Amino acid sequence: MGTLASPRKKPFSWSTVAIHGLLIACIAVVAFPLYFAFAVSTQNLQQVVQQPPRLLPSVHALENYAEAWHKAHMGRMLFNSLVMAVTVAVGKIIISMLSAFAVVYFDFRGRMVCFWMIFVTLMLPVPVRLMSTYEVVGTLGWINTYQGLTVPLMASATATFLFRQFYLTIPSELAEAAQLDGAGPMRFLFQFLLPLSWANIAALFVVLFIFGWNQYLWPILITNTEAMRTVVIGLEELIPRSGTELPTWNLIMAGAMMALLPPVAIIIFMQRWFVKGLVESEK
Amino acid sequence: MPRTTTMMRSAAGVCVLLAAVTLAPAPAHAKTEIQFWHAMTGQLNDATNELVKQFNDSQSEYEVKPLNKGTYPVTLTAAIAAYRQKQAPHIVQVFEVGTQTMLLSGAVDPVYQLMKNQEIAVEWKDFIAPVVGYYSKDGNLYSMPFNSSTPILYYNKEAFQKAGLDPSKPPQTWKQVEDYSKKIIASGAAKCGFSTGWPSWTMVENMHAWHDQPFATKRNGFDGLDVQLLINKEFGVMHLSRLAAWQKDNIYSYGGRQGTADPKFVNGECAMYIQSSALIGGFTRGVKFQWGTGQLPFWGPPYTKATSIIGGATLWVMKGKPANENRGTAKFLKFLSEPNQQMWWHVTTGYLAISNTAVKNLEAGYHFKKFPDQYTAFAELTKGKATANSQGIRLGNFVQIRDVIEGEMENIFAGKKTAKQGLDDAVTKSNDILKEFAAANKQ
Amino acid sequence: MQRTVFRNRWLPYLLVFPQMAVTVLFFFWPALKSLQLSLYRVSPFGDSMTFVGLANFAKLLGDAEYYRSVLNSFVFAGGVTALSVAGSLLMAALATQKIRGLAAYRTLLLWPYGIAPAVAGIIFLFIFHPTYGLLPYFLSFVTTYEFNWLLKGWVAMTLVIVSTAWTHLGYNIAFYVAGLLAIPGAVLEAADVDGAGPLRRFAFIVFPLISPITFYLVTLNMVFAFFESFGVIDAVTKGGPGDATMIMVYKLYKDGFIGLNLGSSGAQSVILMALVIGLTMLQFKYAEKKVTYR
User: Residue A6 and residue C120: Cβ atoms within 8 Å?
Assistant: First the structure.
C-alpha cells in the first residue's frame, strides 16, 4: 500500500500549513453539528432557546444525562440495541459469507438464479415492505421477540455482494493448491479464505452494526413491550411531536449523544480495518 | 487472527444468552394486563404514565401497560398491523382526524357498548357537548375522550404595555388584531403581530366553525361519505387573503406546521399567538414574560359566532379481547372519566376536563380564579351557540386532507398562489382523496 | 476468469440455504405482497380489497404532484451525490497529503457516518430552526434575506440535501482515502519529475486512477439517496413546505404508512423500483466504459 507521502521533505512549507488549515476547516464543518449537540446537552432550557445562541457548554451535563437516561430507560434500551446490532451484523456476515462462497466456488443448478435473487434485494427499499413483513413475522409468531427484531433485517444482500466481489479477486491458484493438498471446500473456506477476509469482515461489521443500531421504523412496529425497545425509540420518545408542547432540547440532545456514542466509538476503533477492508472488496 | 472471530462469536453468544435469561418468563402474575398504546411523548408521556399508575395502584386485579408507539399516525398504523395479526392492544389512542377511519373499520368495540356489556354506569350526559359530539354516532359515544383541547389566543402582556395597549384586554376582533399588531410593530415591542400553530386546524377548520361557516358538505361529513369541501367559498378566501396580505407586513408571520412556531411567541418575536389550549402548561413553565389568553378573534358581521371545535385524541377499544380483559379496559376508562382524574389531568397537562361536574368542581375550587386562562377554552366551547357547522368535522383520510390544505396554505403565504387559487386546488385534491376513501370503504 | 470449483453435489445447496431462506421469507414474500397491492384498492384495516387493475398506476401517472416528486427525487439525489462525493474527495485528498496527524484527521472526518439519520435530522433541525437556530442567526449578520425554510421551497431542499450529504461523508471519505493510498508512489513521483504541478497531477493522473471508486460511490450514493434517505426529511421538513421536499420514497411512505393507501403506495413502489433498476443499468452501461480498471 503506497502513500502520497515521500519520506524526506523540507521541514516547513506554506503548502503544509495550507493543508493543515484546510483540514481543520473541513473538520470544523463536519464536526460542528455534533459539537453543538454536545454543547446543548450540557445546558439548561433557558440557555438553549436564548438569542443569540450559546455555543459554549454549560454545567448542567450531569442532570441532563441522568434525566434523559432515566426517562428513556436508556440502560435497557442500550442493551437491546447492542443485541440487535451485533446479532444483525454477525448473522448477516455468516450467512452472506457462506452463500457467496457457494456461488463463487461451486457449479450447481440454479447458481445464477440464486445470485440474481440476492442481487434484486438491493432494489426495493424498506418502507415498501414494512407492513407485509410484519404480517409474515406475525404468522411466524415472532412479534415482540429478538428473532422478529433481527432476522428480517438480515434479508438484504449487500454483504453477499461484497463477499462475492472479494472472492472473485482471489487467485484461482490458491484454490487449486488447496485441492491438491486434499483439502475439502470447508477446510478451504476456514483455513484459506477466512484469514484473507478479516479486513472485509471488520469493515462489514462496522457498516452492519451501524445499520442495525440506527433502525427506528421496524423496531417500533415490532416491539410491544418496554423491555424490548431500542435506543433510537427511547430518543424519539423524548421529542414531543404532538405539537402541543415545548421540546426540551437539552434533554433530547443528551439522549442523542447517548444514542450515537456506541456506533461512533465502533467507527473510531475499527477505522483502520474499515478503510482497508472496503477498498479491497470493491475491486 | 482467528481469535478475533472466536471473540466476536462468543461476545455475540454471551449477549444472546444474557437476553434469553433476562427474558425468561416471570412467575405468573395475579394481575391481568391491559395493553394501552399511545402517542404521548415528552412531558405528556410522563403525565400519562402517572395517570396510569394511579389506576394500577387503586386496584389489584388489572395492570394497564402504557406504551408509546411513535407519533399519532405511526401508532394508528401499528395498531392496524397488529390487529390484522390478532396482536392488537386493548386500547389505542387515535387522533381526532382518524375518527372516520376508526368508525368504519369494524375493528372497534364502541365505548358505550363496552360499558353496557360490562354493566358499568357512566354519566354520559355529564360530558361536555362539543367533545362528545365529535366522537358520537347516533347519539352514542364510540371512543373515550382523553386529551382534548381547542385553540385560543395567547398574548404577551409586557409587549402590549410597551406598545401602549391595555395588558388586560386581549383583542376580540380580527380588526383589533390588525390594529394592535401595527401598534406593536411600530413601537418596537415585538417583530411581528401574531403567529399560529397547526395552521389548518386553527385558521381553516376552527375559523369556519367559529364563524358558523360550513367546512364541508353533509354537515361537515357527519351525514355520509360523498362529501366535498367548502373552504374555497367566500369566507375561506377572505380569511386566507387577509392572512397572506398581513404576512407581507409582518402583522402575521407563518411559522410552520404543528408547533414549530411556538418559539416565536416564547421568544417574544410575535406578541400574539393562536395555538392549542394545551400549551398553557408548557407556557406556564417556559415563558418568562407576563402573558394572558383570550378567545379566538372574530370578524364580526355579517358572520355570527358559534363555538370552536376540539382537537386532540381519544381512546378506542379494539375488538376481539376476552370478556375478563374487557372488564379491565372498561374499569380503566371509567376511572379516567371520573371528575377527580379529569381535574388532575386538566391541572397537570392543560387539556380539557370533559365532564361538566369536573368543570364545576374546578370552578368551586377557585381553580379558574387562580388560572383564568384555563377557562378561556371552556368558554369558547360551551358559551357559544353550537350549530351544525361547529360540532366538529368527520372526514375520511383527514390526515392527508390536512396535509393538502397546509401545503396550499404554504403556497399562498409564500406568494406562489392567490388565496382563491390555493384553496381551489386544495378543494380539488381533497375531494379526490375523499372519493378514494368512499370507494375503499363501500359498506 | 477461470474459476476453480469444488465438486460437491449437495454442499452448495446447504451453504446458500440460510441466505435464501431469509431472503425468500423476509424479502420476496413481503415484497410480492406489497407489489400485488398495487393492483387493488384496499381499506385501511384490510377488510376489503377490490381489484382495480392498473387504476392506481393511471392515477399516479396523471398526477402533477407525482411528477414533481420524481423531479424532487432527482434534484435531491443529484445534490446529495454531488455534494457528498465531491466534498469527500476533497477531504480525502487533503487527508492523504504529506503531513502529520493523518490518523487523527481521518478519524475526525469519518465518524459522522455512525449517526442515525433521524438523530442527524434532529440536530440539523435544531441548528436550522428559523427562530432559535444557529445558522439563521449567523446568516442574519450577512444578509437580510430571510432564509425561511418553512416557506421557501429551495431553502428547505438545500437544508435536507446538506444534512443528508453530511451524514454520508464519512462513508465516501473512507473509500477515497483507501483508494488514494493505494496509488503507487512511483506513479506520482514520475509525474513530479515530468514537471506536473499538483493540480494537473491530480486531474490527469490521480483522478482517472480512482475512477472505479468514483463510479462505485456515485452509484451507491444515488441509490441511497433515492431509497434510504427519508430519515432526514421525516425528521425535518416532512415533505414541506408545500411539496418542495417531497421525494418519491417519502411520498410512498406517507401515502402507505401514514395515509394507509396501500394500493397507491404499492404502485409507487413498483415505479420506484423500475426507476432505480433502470438507473443502475444505465450507469453500468455508460460509465463502465469511462472507468479505468487497473
Answer: no
> What is the Cα–Cα distance from A111 to C224, expressed in whole angstroms?
28
Give the whole-angstrom CA distance, residue A210 versus residue C223. 18
Tell me the C-alpha distance between B183 and B193, whole Å. Answer: 9
Give residue B38's pLDDT: 95
Which pLDDT value is given to residue A205? 86
Q: Where are the domains of chain B?
A: 32-149+311-373, 152-308+395-440
Task: Provide the pLDDT for residue A109.
Answer: 84
- pLDDT of B304: 94
pTM of the model: 0.84
Q: Which residues of chain B have a CB within 8 Å of the CB of C45?
A: 80, 83-84, 105-107
| H helix and E strand count, chain B | 21, 12
Q: Do A237 and B41 touch (CB under 8 A)?
A: yes
Residues A278, A145 within the same domain: yes
Whether A134 is covered by a domain: the verdict is yes
- What is the model's pLDDT at position A9? 46
For residue C162, what pLDDT is reported?
87
Q: How many CB atoms lie within 10 A of CB B292?
A: 17
Preceding omega of A247 cis (within 30 degrees of 0)? no
pLDDT tens sequence across C35-65: 888 898 888 887 778 898 899 999 999 888 8
Nearest CA in chain B to C129: B260
Residue B205 has pLDDT above 90, yes or no: yes
| Domain co-membership, A208 together with A90 | yes
Which domains are assigned to chain C?
55-290 (1.10.3720.10)
Chain C contacts in chain A segment 182-201 (CB below 8 A)? 184-186, 188
In a domain, A10, yes or no: no
Residues A165 and A236 in one domain: yes
Q: A243 to chain B: nearest residue by CA?
A: B259
Tell me what pLDDT residue A8 has: 46
**Total of domains in chain A:** 2
Average pLDDT of the segment spanning A77-95: 93
For the question of an ipTM over 0.90, the answer is: no
What's chain B's length in residues? 443
Record: fold of B32-149+311-373: D-Maltodextrin-Binding Protein; domain 2 (3.40.190)
Considering Cα of C16, then C18, then C24, then C27, what sign does the dihedral take? negative
Q: Where are the strands (E) in chain C, listed by range?
A: 40-42, 49-51
Please report the pLDDT score of residue A1 as a whole number.
Answer: 39
Q: Which domain holds residue A52?
A: 15-59
CA distances, A110 to each of B174, B262, C76 (Å): 74, 60, 39
CATH architecture designation of domain B152-308+395-440: 3-Layer(aba) Sandwich (3.40)
- Do A155 and C273 make contact, defined as CB atoms within 8 angstroms? no
Interface contact C91-A232, CB threshold 8 A: no
Is the pLDDT at B12 greater than 80? The verdict is: no
Determine the distance in angstroms separating the CA of A273 from the nearest CA of chain C, rounded to an integer: 10
CB–CB contacts below 8 A, B to C: 88
